[in-house]
Specification:
5 strands; DUF817; single chain; two-stranded antiparallel sheet; mainly alpha; 56% helix
Length: 281
């Protein structure tokens, strides 16, 4: 029974920490849903309000030290990378999706708040990394992961004109990360799971959030113009690749640390840590 109580307690703490890590993304989703049903501000478009609210929330998190400056840098990088992709995907020639409402703060067909939606993923990864003291075993050489996500990003554009290489990229991803384990600390003890499975869980969560966002009329796919319907599960492959891209971008500012237990690891870039080293930095 004591072990069962310990499990319940640890599971509860795990949920609280995840909610804390999702703070920015949860705020954006809440604003989207509330403003769908109630938006009384005249003279300010709803999309522009979401953009200003996202900036204000970021200032709030930094001011009260709920977010580090390093995590804020991750958000800026994601905003820039995502906006470039959005400009292409929503262009008149491509029209993978569109934003049906009016806005002032935007470029071409893209309202500026959209970058924050991708930044919410980067913010979550950077925060959850710190909160759970992520460590990795059998992590592949970092240069291979950088090349891999460059292929992911390029394929987001080129598959409209050439072959879609996502399944080849996914196959290479599974090959590189097949034995990689992510070690995370909920309270005192580090647990572990396959990193590939962890990415799938986050991609699934993003898919659920995407359904909420499209229901709230934030953006619409071509098959949702007449009436809203759930986003196809096939989109999970895109979100999985986005997770891979997001994760590797975060590794550029966060150090890959190996588990505290002394193990032989495959990548020379992993830095061994002593047992006495603080869990977080």
């Amino acid at each position: 029974m004591n072990k069962f109580k310990q499990f319940i307690h640890e599971f509860f703490v795990f949920g609280l920490k995840q909610a804390y890590a999702c703070m920015f993304g949860g705020f954006l989703l809440a604003v989207m849903l509330v403003t769908k049903y109630w938006y009384p501000i005249e003279g300010l478009h709803r999309y522009d309000f979401i953009f200003l609210a996202a900036i204000a929330f970021q200032v709030f998190m930094l001011a009260f030290k709920l977010e580090t400056w390093k995590e804020a840098l991750v958000i800026i990088v994601f905003h820039l990378v995502a906006t470039v992709m959005e400009l292409f995907k929503t262009s008149d020639a491509i029209q993978s999706w569109h934003y049906p409402e009016e806005f002032i703060f935007g470029i071409a067909n893209v309202p500026l708040f959209t970058g924050f939606m991708y930044s919410a993923v980067g913010s979550y990864l950077a925060r959850v990394w710190r909160i759970f003291d992520f460590r990795y075993s059998n992590y592949p050489p970092k240069w291979t992961t950088v090349i891999l996500v460059m292929a992911v990003y390029i394929n987001f554009f080129t598959h409209h004109y050439w072959y879609d290489l996502r399944w080849l990229i996914l196959a290479i991803t599974f090959y590189l990360f097949l034995t990689t384990q992510i070690h995370f600390k909920v309270i005192k003890t580090h647990r572990k799971m396959p990193l590939l499975f962890g990415w799938f869980l986050v991609a699934l969560f993003i898919w659920f959030a995407e359904n909420i966002a499209t229901y709230a009329n934030i953006w619409l796919y071509p098959n949702q113009k007449e009436a809203w319907q759930m986003v196809p599960l096939a989109k999970l492959s895109s979100w999985y690749l986005l997770m891979l891209l997001s994760f590797v971008l975060v590794t550029l500012v966060n150090r890959i640390k190996q588990p505290l237990a002394k193990t032989v690891l495959q990548s020379p870039e992993l830095e061994p840590l002593a047992e006495s080293e603080p869990a977080t930095r």
